[in-house]
Every structure is written in C-alpha cells, then in structure tokens.
Amino acid sequence: MLQLAIIGTNWISEKFARAALQTEQFVIRGVYSRALDKARAFGEPLGATLFIDSLEELAASKEIDAVYIASPNSLHSAQAIQMMQAGKHVICEKPMASNLAQVESMLEVAKANNVVLMEAFKTAYLPNFIEAKKALANLGRLHKAHLTYCQYSSRYQKYLDGENPNTFNPEFSNGSIMDIGFYSVAAAVELFGAPTQIQASAHLLESGVDAHGSVLLRYPEFDVTLSHSKVSNSYSTSEIQGEEGSLILADFSECLGFDLYARSGERTHFETEQVENSMMYEAKAFASMILKGEMDEHATQRSLTIAHIITEVRRQTGIVFPADVNSQ
C-alpha cells in the first residue's frame, strides 16, 4: 500500500483522501497543517497517524511515499519541488502551478528525482468523459465547440463586503481562469489537443484577478469558445458540432453522461456508471503511475499545454501574479 500524506485540510482534500482510500491502493499516513490541531482533526477520521506542522519534517519522513497538495495555487510549485527533491511522488491540485515556467521547473525536478508528478484534473479520467471523447469520431469534421463552466463563488460576497478572500486575491494566484476557467481549458486540451491560436478577454476586479472571461481557441478547421465565471451561474450545456452531428454535455466537469445528435436530429443518450466520488479515478491513475514507475506522457503534455494557454490568457488580459515576477 502507498503511504499518502495530505497538504491542506479543506473540503477538497477530504474528498480526495476518501477517493484515494476507495482505490485500495493508498493509506492516509500523514497530514500537514500549520496548526497541528487542524491536522489531527482532519486526519484521525481518515486513519492518519502522523500530524506535521513542518514541511521540512514531512519531506524528510520515511513513512511517506506520496503527497497530495491542495494548498493555495501560489504555493503549489515550491511545495511540490520540496517534496519531489526528497523522493516523494506528488499529485497537485489544479492548476499545477501559477504559470508555465513553474510547471516546466516542476516537471524537470520530477524527472531528475525519478518521481511521479501529476495534475489532479479528474475530468479526463471519468468513464463518461472518456466515452464522449471516443464519440467525437461520430461527428465528422469538427467546426464549432462551446465549453461553458460558470459558478457563483461562495466567497464573492465577502469580496464585495470589502474582505480579501484567497479566491479573488492575486497573491494566491487566483481568479476565474485559474479556478473555474481551468476546467474549460483542460477539457478542451484533453479533447482537441493544443490550439494554433489563443484569443482571450476578461473582466477584472479591482483586486487584479478576473471575475469572468471568454477564450477562443483556434484549430486548423474549427474554433472552440470557452466561457468561465466566478460571479454568475450558468445552466446551459456545452456542445461540440461536426458535419455529421453534435455532442451535448450537460456538465462536462462531472460528465454523468452525454447526448449524441445525428445530423437528421436523431438523439442517442450515453451514460455509463461512475462512482459517486469522482476523484477516485484520478487517484487510481496516480497510483498506477507510481506502481509503473513512470509518468503518463499524455498527462504531462496536457499539463504543459494547459499551463501555456492559461499563462497566455493572463498575458492578454493583464492578470499578473507576484509568482510571475518570482518565476523570472
């Protein structure tokens, strides 16, 4: 069994920890938090026995094989590099880092230390999303796609009230394209690969991060439009159009199924069973890489392409993080 440590004691960390246990490939051995009481309260129900408030101590621990990082985005790179230099495998919450330069550095460290580094992008590993990707062959030549993910943030009112939540703070490399927008970018990359051209627009808050925005990804024969927002909800579907038909995704991030429309208008619904905690599939993929002793080249290239697109989107829309300066 792989001995897993968790950095971060938020809801996403608990969900991933339980998903990792569900794979039956991991045990939760340790939890890091700056407050030991939080680490203990988080980790004891998961079976953890090692509670740590020092990253140096975590990196040095012989009891830990792998680390899941769910700290603020701005901390991902330094923490992952520290763990990998100590011989730990790392799965890092999306986005993997603040910018492309950091992702490139992280992957270099992973290779130099012969460890696995994986970005926790669950959608690519969902059974229904995998089937949707296969179903693109039924659409003929592609021409248009629209992927939308807009979700009103529970922290937005705090921002409006004059507080400074991490969600809308450039110090933590945050904002819409780094959070909600990541899903649309990553899904497009998984489905279509790297674009030939990127055009982006965004509406920035006074804090300097984006509240919402749009991205146009151009491919040789088709365009993909991405919509993202942390200040409004969307109830519309995503669609991929080809000459022979269209594919409709109600919620591509969880992808519980999809509809395939032939050009004649005939509709076919596809849906295969998925486990309730959908993070289990990415946890299983991470375990598989560790046990094989090598990273998945497709997943690595996907992370690089995602980071390139998001970094370029921020350049075009004027979103600058302190991490960008520190990476130069």
What does this structure look like?
The protein is of the alpha/beta class. The protein has 2 domains: 2-121 and 289-296, NAD(P)-binding Rossmann-like Domain (Rossmann fold, 3-Layer(aba) Sandwich); 124-270, Dihydrodipicolinate Reductase, domain 2 (2-Layer Sandwich), CATH 3.30.360.10. It is built from 11 helices and 14 strands. The strands form 2 sheets. It has an 8-stranded mixed β-sheet with strand order 8-9-10-7-11-12-13-14, covered by helices on one side. Strand 11 (238-242) and strand 12 form a beta hairpin. The protein is globular and about 60 Å long. This is Gfo/Idh/MocA family protein. Pfam families: GFO_IDH_MocA, GFO_IDH_MocA_C3. One of its GO terms (molecular function) is nucleotide binding. Residues 132-247 form the GFO/IDH/MocA-like oxidoreductase domain.
Task: Draw up the topology in text.
Layout: E1 2-7, H1 11-22, E2 26-32, H2 36-43, E3 50-52, H3 55-60, E4 66-69, H4 76-85, E5 89-93, H5 100-112, E6 117-120, H6 127-135, E7 142-150, H7 156-160, H8 180-192, E8 197-204, E9 210-218, E10 223-229, E11 238-242, E12 245-249, E13 258-262, E14 267-270, H9 280-292, H10 297-317, H11 322-327
Distance between the termini: 40 Å
Number of domains: 2
Q: Which shape, going by the Cα principal axes?
A: globular
> Pairing-aware structural class of the strands and helices?
alpha/beta
Q: Encode the helix/strand succession as letters.
A: EHEHEHEHEHEHEHHEEEEEEEHHH
Number of helices: 11
* CATH fold-level name of the largest domain: Dihydrodipicolinate Reductase, domain 2
Strand order of the largest sheet: 8-9-10-7-11-12-13-14
Enumerate the spans where pLDDT stays under 50 for 5 or more consecutive residues: none
Number of strands: 14
Instruction: Provide the CATH architecture of the largest domain.
Output: 2-Layer Sandwich
Biggest β-sheet description: 8 strands, mixed
CATH superfamily of the largest domain: Dihydrodipicolinate Reductase, domain 2
Overall CATH class of the largest domain: Alpha Beta
Helical content (DSSP H or I, runs of 4+): 25-40%
Task: Tell me the quaternary state.
Answer: single chain
Beta-strand content bin: 15-25%
Report the average pLDDT across residues.
Answer: 96
Write down the Rg. 20 Å
InterPro entries: Gfo/Idh/MocA-like_OxRdtase_N, GFO_IDH_MocA-like_dom, NAD(P)-bd_dom_sf
Protein name: Gfo/Idh/MocA family protein
GO molecular function: nucleotide binding
Pfam family, one: GFO_IDH_MocA_C3
